[in-house]
Amino acid sequence: MKYIEARSIRDVDEEHWDSVTGNVLSMSHCWLRVMEAYWHSYGSSYLLMEDEQGPCVAVVANTAISFGNLGLLGWFYQQLSLAIHPPFSSMCGVMIRSGTSIESIMSHLEPALSQLCRREKRLLLTIDNIVSSDLPAWRQKGFMAFQQQGLNILDLPSTYDLYLDTLRPKDRSELRRIRKRGMELDVHFEIGPLANDGEQIYALFCEVFANHGTSPQAMSFNPDFFTGLEREMPGDVQFLRGYVGKNLAGVSLCLLNGSTLWWPMAGLHHEIARPSYLYFLLIDEMIRWGIEHGVKKIFGGKTAGREKQRHGFHLEERWFCYRSNFRPLNPVLAFGFPLAQRLLRHS
């Protein structure tokens, strides 16, 4: 087994890396180049494992996740743990080559991760967003686990009418009511690349983050993040803009990756957006646009699950695994770490 370690993704061959990760946007070479350049809370560390058939495992670790809002607890969490987690992502930071089982590679993967943790001088190794089918393999290697919030996923049919047929009758009725309300308030949409409204779009994202307790100063990105995305992913970055009359009141960042649409975040001017139900209409318009452009699957992140499920999204289970290389500490972690995670989630 060959091991390639790097601090920058630019030091890893793009073709080799994407042969393992290319179908997951937030693990792709181009995405990670943008994160290194524009995502503030990201300390990059990469591991690419190759066997006799070629690249087989890709790992993204973040050495600089920030929990400053938790004070001393957040500082200890950041200093003591190595997070196997791609930035700004709800996907796992460990990817296995298609056709290769995690069980067949775990005897090489687990010691490689332990060595990486020791080299980073971290006491804890954490891996989040693990799918249920992979969980037994991690537990067999001594990792403890607890269930995380699920990932919202929508599978799209070939037509919008077929999509409507998949909704519950009460959800179809509610969607019709909301669309009627949108027409009354002159809600309309445009979709396209970033134009001269970058600062205005960024302000809408800032408002949503502020509504969840994150000030603009504490955000991990600035408007340059969007220009970086467009430069590294030309043609695949779309901004779905929602207007109420002449006012830009909402926006969804949409990222195309083949027949998959990634929807990592939305921005809103709440005062204008709420009366028009703009958030719900943005989802509906994104689904319409996706079907028209051959999208088969939408990844919708982990937030606002109830609202997304009304549009047909389902939740896919995700698990958080953790372990210390200092084995006597693990019984303490079995009790204390889930408690700390709950504090992080509700802070």
Write a concise synopsis of the structure shown:
The chain is α+β, with helices and mostly antiparallel strands.
Feature tags:
347 residues, Aminopeptidase, globular, seven-stranded mixed β-sheet, single chain, alpha+beta
Descriptive overview:
- With 347 residues, the chain is an alpha+beta fold.
- It folds into two domains: 2-149 and 317-346, Gcn5-related N-acetyltransferase (GNAT) (Aminopeptidase), CATH 3.40.630; 152-315, Gcn5-related N-acetyltransferase (GNAT) (Aminopeptidase, 3-Layer(aba) Sandwich).
- 41% of the residues lie in helices and 26% in strands.
- It has helices spanning 14-21, 29-38, 72-80, 102-119, 135-140, 160-166, 169-184, 198-211, 224-232, 270-276, 278-292, 305-309, 330-346; strands at 2-6, 44-51, 54-62, 81-84, 94-96, 124-130, 144-147, 151-155, 187-192, 237-244, 247-257, 260-268, 297-299, 314-316, 319-324.
- The chain has a seven-stranded mixed beta sheet. A four-stranded antiparallel beta sheet has the order 1-2-3-5, sandwiched between helices. A four-stranded mixed beta sheet has the order 4-6-15-7, sandwiched between helices.
- α2 runs antiparallel to α9 and α7 (169-184) packs across α11.
- It is globular and about 65 Å long.
